[in-house]
Amino acid sequence: MGVADLGLPVDVPSTALFTDHYELTMLQAALAAGTAERRSVFEVFTRRLPEGRRYGVVAGTGRVLDAVENFRFDTDVLGFLRERGVVNEPTLEWLASYRFGGDVWGYPEGEVYFPGSPILRVEGSFAECVLLETVILSILNHDSAIAAAASRMSSAAGDRPLIEMGARRTHELAAVAAARAAYVGGFATTSDLAAGFRYNIPTVGTSAHAFTLLHDTERDAFQAQVSVLGQGTTLLVDTYDVAEAVRTAVEVAGPKLGAVRIDSGDLLLVAHRVRQQLDELGATETRIVVTSDLDEYAIASLRAAPVDAYGVGTQLVTGSGHPTASMVYKLVARAESADPQAPLVPVAKKSSGGKTSVGGRKWAARRLDEYGVAEAEVIGTGKVPQELTDRLLQVELIKGGQVVAREPLDVVRDRHAAARAGLPLSATQLSRGEAVIPTEYV
Amino acid sequence: MGVADLGLPVDVPSTALFTDHYELTMLQAALAAGTAERRSVFEVFTRRLPEGRRYGVVAGTGRVLDAVENFRFDTDVLGFLRERGVVNEPTLEWLASYRFGGDVWGYPEGEVYFPGSPILRVEGSFAECVLLETVILSILNHDSAIAAAASRMSSAAGDRPLIEMGARRTHELAAVAAARAAYVGGFATTSDLAAGFRYNIPTVGTSAHAFTLLHDTERDAFQAQVSVLGQGTTLLVDTYDVAEAVRTAVEVAGPKLGAVRIDSGDLLLVAHRVRQQLDELGATETRIVVTSDLDEYAIASLRAAPVDAYGVGTQLVTGSGHPTASMVYKLVARAESADPQAPLVPVAKKSSGGKTSVGGRKWAARRLDEYGVAEAEVIGTGKVPQELTDRLLQVELIKGGQVVAREPLDVVRDRHAAARAGLPLSATQLSRGEAVIPTEYV
Prior knowledge:
The structure is a homodimer. By secondary structure, chain A is α/β, with parallel strands linked by helices. Chain A folds into two domains: 3-131 and 326-441, Alpha-Beta Barrel (nicotinate phosphoribosyltransferase); 146-321, Aldolase class I (TIM Barrel). In chain A, 37% of the residues lie in helices and 17% in strands. Chain A is built from 16 helices and 18 strands. In chain A, α11 (218-229) runs parallel beside α12. Residues 1-9 of chain A have low confidence and may be disordered. At the A-B interface, α2, α4, α7, α8 and α9 of A face α2, α4, α7, α8 and α9 of B.
């Protein structure tokens, strides 16, 4: 896999170091004990949705496929592990030829999920599967958290476009993944050039307060911007006095001015005033973009305001109060012996202290009511009931180590919109509530 | 700068794409208007601390220095910007030879900060400075948020070591930065191998529930682990029944067993029971590590429990409720003209809608009381009062584009411990409160 496939601006020589130390010590102990080759099934799921949330959004699956394909222990990495004494020589030898050769099934990216949904299933030897835990969870926990917030925001925004502009509020590379997840969740564009470069997401942006402050007058700044970016540009009108700025903006750009941006103040009030002023100035087509500390609630509260687009930063990239999706990666079944034909035994943690899980390899289906609306997430370990065979959710993602399900991001985005539309209407209520459909185990 | 300096496992060919689209359109408009070369001063600060927090922690400065040094527009990046029409040809030409040639001063990494503290000051032409906004904020907002949470946790833990183990709960590369920030904030070790590789932070880890479940019995699992990792290892004792596991653990490893780990349940209660049981079994030196959903409050509540070390994941990497530090990067002064000798004019946003700031290039000093304890963060734009000249906080980080203040992470970690110790005692109270010292403007 070349650099281009992995995606600049960041070339990841290997994803194998995005791994917790204990994955390698477990490998070493299992190799010595002769249990490393036991066929194993790991599943990714979450025990609960974030408090008050009605559905989750699977995001990051495409990045997981890249990460698994690229999970290699090269000379530098092996040298580090040797020097630090993380594992012994036989383990280092085993790692040197590591390639994931197992199978991965999962919910397709963009699909919604509920407590217990087996979002990803990784099958192979214990050794080859256990190593992938950390990087798979990092990606799914981050990206799904962002996509869930994005989905709520896009449903609150209705037909009005959302601009992702949170890069400055999160780690510089998390920002790139966040822009991707936001796009999956329904955002239209991003401010992040790296996300445009890597994922071909449309990028947008015009100017900040600093640009106005750089110039001797606001008029100078607007003239400078319009003369280069054209009258279709977006002028930022809240550096000094909004009403004066709007007047100057239309004088400078003419009534065909593309948009004005408001980044502070009481947006509901200011948007109404600015709309009225623009209309009076003949700039009836000039759009209003608002961008100040928005979340899904603020977006919803502006539904009746004359706003044409929303820019969202902090609350998007921090998952609007829930920056991680609390997914776990659990061994749910393993063979009785290292014999490839040995039958699988379901396993599960049993301690009374919580964190218990359901053993066994699971299927999942979404049962619909008579109107075609989702009514339950059905999860089972045995035979799939006849009536659910065409409602199964998991698809094959990796077969014998080969990725078989790469897809364009627009397909994922459309899938999410369709999946959300298939939920009961209460799914998109912003008020706190339970998961919009129950999880049933059969 | 070679790959080794930037740090594997991620080679960043350029940090220039970690940039919002509008930085480049502002550049283009300023170049055309003849204002791009006006000497400018940008400052990074936060208007407020996260609600209830008493101090902030500067973290990420070292990463900022790397990012600025590596901020280049290579052929691939320029090709992307051209193809997408982000900026015009004259701007692309300007970008092709971009190197930051200005000066950066700032609080040294690990120092504490308060509302308004000018944490970083970037000086140069408007053009060269404005481009750095996004990547500088991404790094400082993320890393400082994590370090602040880490600092609270380490002060709650006292002398007991903290293990950072949150990689799986955040973006895979944010995790590496989080481990670094946690170390600055007082953590002792990390589970993240990439953080060990990149920043030389000690890594630790032994086994998870999956390892126990892989084996036919818990005893088999413990024997496998002890035979390879030695009796000094840490055995996870809450897969089935804790009391039985502890008995088995000491039988298998002997009374010199290194540690047991508890990852679920009522940790206060279980820790007491396990300590008593270990002591009765003669394993008086065996340590108890707890790792279940800890935050600074849970750590503090376990102060009286027989716990020897804490592992912290989710709450650490998500900033314990505050995943971003809300720092901004504001133009505070700029020259009247492009003439290098032109005097600087203080500038600031003035709109009534909030988000106002104080114009002018600032100094900052921490005033001490008669006992040597911090009593105020003093910020000014004019001459430094005589009595504060030896309490100034900002240091030179980049001079004429050259990094002049690289330092080992242990120095940063020690600086943070010393800075925190210099605050009033109430700084480390976990209860919600105001900033522990006031910010005064002179």
